Structure prediction request, 370 residues.
Amino acid sequence: MRRGFDSVDLKILECLGRYGPRNTAYIAKKLGIYRGTVRKRIKRMISNFFITFHATIYHTNLGLKKAFVFAEAIPGREELFFDCLKANDFWVYVGPCYGRYEGYYGIYTVPNAHTLEFMQFVQELEKIGVAQKVKLLWSTSLQTVNSTGKWFNHDSGAWILPWNEWMEQILAIKRTKLPYTLMDPKDFPLRADYIDIFILKELEKDATIKLSKVAEMLNLTPEAVLHHYKKHVIERGLIEGFEILFYRFDKGTSDFSVFIFSFDDEQKMIRFALALLDKPFVYTFGKVLGENALIAHILLPRSEYRGFKKVLSKLVQNGFLKTYEYIMEDFEGRDRQTISYEFFKDGSWTYNHDEHLKRLHNLVKQRNLA
Prediction:
C-alpha cells in the first residue's frame, strides 16, 4: 500500500461503503472529525490510490436475473467468441480468462421472463462453432465486500492474510442466515420506472454524481430526480450498496480470479459466505441459484495463492467444502457496460431474442468471409 494510507483513511472507507459516498456529513459526525477533513482525505485517497465509487444495483428488484457464462474459445476464434458474447443486449461484463476455461466469461442481467430464451442464446454459442464446454450459472445479485479494519496492520499500513485464522473463523461461525442479497429470491419484481433505471445507470458509473446533473440529462427538475432517488431507488431497495473500488494489493504482483465453491449442505455454505464478508481479498460474491454454491471475485498476491488453496484443501479434506474450481482473469481486452437502460420501454424490458441470434450468425458469416 502506498505511503500515507492510515487507519483514519480506512475508517472513512468503511463508512463510505456502509453509508454511501453521498453522506460525508453523516460520516464525519459518526467518526467525530470535521467534514472538511473527511472530504480532504477522500480527495487525497482518490488521487493516490485511484479509488472510484459505484452503486451496486440489486437487479432482483428490477426484474432481472444475473447469469454467469463460462466457456472455452475454439482455437483461432477467440476474438469472434468475445464479440459473440456481446451479441446479447443484456451483457454487463465480458473478459478473457484462463485455467479451467481457456477463453472468456461473461456476466449478464437477463429479464426474468426471458431466461429460457437466454439459455437458447448460450447453447447457440456452441452450435455456431465459436465455443465449447459452455457452462451457465444463474446467480443472486452480487454482494459487495468493501474494505474494513479486518486483517489490516495499522503499523505497516498494509493488509495481512493469516490463513489459519480464517479457517478457524469459518469453522467457529454459528450464525446461520445469509444477507438478503445472497438469498434465493422468491420472485423478481419490477419495482422501477425508466427514470429510476436511468438514475441507477449513472450511479453505477459514478456514485458521487450530482443528481442535478442527472436531472439535466433527463430534462427534469432536480426535485423530481431527488424524489425518485429517495422514494424509489432507496426506499424500494433498488441498490444493494456502494462499491468503494481500489486495489488492496499491488496489481503487478497479484491476480484476479473467479472461484466457484460448492458445499454438501446449506449451513456450511452460509458459514463460509459469512467468513468472506469482511476479507480484503474478496471484492464481490454471489450465491448460485438453487444450489449450495458461491461465486466469488478474488484478488490475491501470487505469493498468497498457496496459503489460500491450502485452507481450501483442508476444508475439502474435513468434509466442510465439497469442491472448488476457479479461473484466472486477464484484464487485457475486457469490456463492461452499465445496466441496459435503453432496453427498458413502456414499463417493461424489451428482449429481442431473434435479433440476438441473428447477430451471432451474422458475426460468424462476416468473419468467415473476411
